[in-house]
Automatic annotation (TrEMBL):
This is Aste57867_12278 protein. Residues 418-437 are annotated as: Disordered. InterPro entries: Di-copper_centre_dom_sf, Tyrosinase/Hemocyanin, Tyrosinase_Cu-bd. Residues 273-284 form the Tyrosinase copper-binding domain. It comes from the Eukaryota. Keywords: Copper, Metal-binding. Pfam families: Tyrosinase.
Length: 540
């Protein structure tokens, strides 16, 4: 077994890792009818559940819905909306969570419009706490994002390496050929509904020349990062303002998943891969917990819900509409007069972009007709959406139920509950008593033990939480395969200026700028999780 020194200096590994126009309007009319049918049917609240809790029939229905969305030309139109520069700027700035909440709802409305069988479909989230628990468990054999969670394998994953460059989006007009994507493989499987009907752009769709495969990285080599652990997600969620919550998620969990999956997911064309929507349903789940625990009684202009108050500049972006070069004098969002969302429909054949996705001229209008184009409408879900989260038997359950108090608790069987954010009693699910899987229970108890040990030496609660997260960065680096920087290609494609959180932490420890002033913490980590990969460093 590997041993740690308390004055550990960490090695740092750097990884330079044609329908006519009439046909389009006919599709739009059909979509409007589909939305109306879905709304007329009483499905109850949209209960977002973890993907692994879906039945085989529910999983099949969801995959078929993605395929039908591709075949009807809806899917790739959402991708180009996400790619369009002014949209992308706001989508990855201070209104990140609200922008994607509307986007996710619009896409889900589209899936529900596809026919009566899909009218009550709700996009599930990916239980990252469960994934990280399985990865950490020394008795478990999974070692990647694909092998530690069923969703990626069931959506085609990728195993073989067939490196090439692909293009996604664009209009086919001069200087708008789409986004170039370097991928390990382009996934096509005649038995896989979620990949076999993929189309990369409107121009290709109308010409009937779709590439028919999704550019992806090697997901069986994609690491499970420390940013997916309960300690890290807890620190991300329980922030003192929405700006801090947003920056936490944008710096930690959100980009790590995109980068590690790579391919289309490592670019602004990421919605072209269906797993994007599971990832962002998870981001939205974190927002739901934040709102419940940190901002339930906030006023509309409070920094707990309105980020313009304390955002500053992050990732070279101000808290306001798109500007080419952000300055302190750049226009900012202001409550309540300046809160409009830039979610402009991008015409994939002409390159024109002049009206909101919900405008009557937009082919996507039926899916956004009840989704207001103002950020303030997404502090909570719009009433028409009726979205709730079910965290039963997941790692998110304890965070949602106990909020910040969970770290100081003692997790046991009595902690089990339905753990659902529900508004309507008659739709409340049956309470579960079995609790989360053993690996998740182990991670909860381990994190509580490590935190309590840390508090013996660190009086400040926030610093203690930070030190626990730093400890897991060291363990990930020394015992679970290393911590790597983002490749230059990812940073350029994702418009991201930062390195991973753990990477920066390890550099700071190695340089002596940071220390972990907690004796014997390494033994607690090794007693629970061991050291899967023997480090080659001297750990001096």
């Amino acid at each position: 077994m590997a041993t740690f020194r308390e004055d550990v200096r960490c090695r740092i590994a750097i990884f330079t890792m044609q329908p006519t126009r009439i046909f389009v309007f006919l599709l739009t009319a059909a979509a409007a009818i589909g939305v109306a049918l879905a709304q007329s049917r009483d499905c109850g609240p949209r209960v977002r559940r973890p993907y692994h809790s879906l039945t085989t029939a529910e999983r099949t229905l969801l995959k078929n819905a993605f395929e039908l969305a591709m075949q009807r030309g809806h899917h790739h139109r959402f991708t180009t909306v996400h790619q369009y520069s002014k949209n992308e700027y706001e989508a990855h700035s201070c209104m990140f969570t609200y922008w994607h909440r509307r986007f996710l709802l619009g896409y889900e409305n589209m899936l529900r419009s596809l026919g009566d069988a899909y009218a009550c479909l709700t996009i599930p989230y990916w239980d990252y706490a469960g994934t990280s628990s399985s990865f950490l468990d020394k008795n478990n054999t999974c070692n990647s994002l694909a092998s530690c969670n069923p969703v990626l394998v069931e959506y085609g994953a990728s195993r073989q390496v067939n490196a090439s460059r692909y293009s996604v989006g664009g209009s086919g007009q001069p200087n708008d050929a789409g986004e170039p994507i370097d991928a390990d493989n382009c996934i096509v499987d005649p038995t896989q509904p979620a990949t076999r009907s993929y189309c990369e752009s409107e121009a290709a769709f109308q010409a009937g020349k779709c590439q028919g495969c999704i550019p992806r990285g090697n997901w069986f080599a994609a690491g499970v990062s420390s940013e997916m652990t309960l300690a890290s997600m807890s620190n991300q969620i329980f922030a003192t303002s929405l700006s801090k919550f947003t920056q936490n998620v944008m710096l930690k969990m959100h980009p790590k998943v995109h980068a590690n999956l790579n391919g289309a997911m490592g670019s602004m064309a990421s919605p072209s891969d269906p797993v994007f929507f599971f990832h962002h349903a998870t981001v939205d789940a974190l927002l739901a917990i934040y709102m419940k625990c940190q901002a339930s009684n906030a006023s509309p202009m409070s920094s707990l819900v309105f980020p313009a108050n304390d955002w500053g500049t992050f990732n070279n972006r101000v808290c306001g509409p798109y500007v080419f070069r952000p300055t302190t004098s750049a226009k900012k969002f202001k409550y309540p007069s300046a809160t409009a969302i830039s979610m402009v429909y991008y015409n994939g054949t002409t390159g024109d972009a002049s009206f909101d996705v919900g405008d009557t001229n937009s082919p996507l209008a039926p899916f956004f007709q009840d989704l207001p184009p103002s950020y303030t409408a997404y502090y909570n879900y719009p009433p028409s959406a009726r979205v709730v989260y079910d965290f039963s038997n997941t790692g998110f359950q304890v965070l949602n139920d106990q909020c910040t108090a969970w770290l100081g608790g003692d997790y046991g069987a009595s902690s089990s509950s339905s753990s659902a954010l529900l508004d309507e009693r008659r739709h409340r699910p049956q309470k579960e008593t079995k609790g989360p899987p053993t690996a998740v229970v182990t991670q909860i108890a381990f994190t509580q033990k490590l935190y309590k040990h840390t508090r013996r030496y660190v009086r400040n609660e926030t610093r203690a939480r930070d030190y626990v997260e730093m400890m897991l960065c060291v363990h990930r680096n020394e015992c679970l395969g290393g911590v790597f920087d983002y490749s230059d290609a990812f940073k350029a494609s994702f418009r991201f200026d930062y390195s991973p959180y753990c990477y920066d932490v390890l550099h700071a420890i190695a340089s002596g700028d940071k220390t972990i002033p907690v004796p014997k913490w390494t033994q607690i980590v090794l007693d629970t999780y061991g050291c899967h990969v023997q480090s080659t460093s001297s750990l001096i």
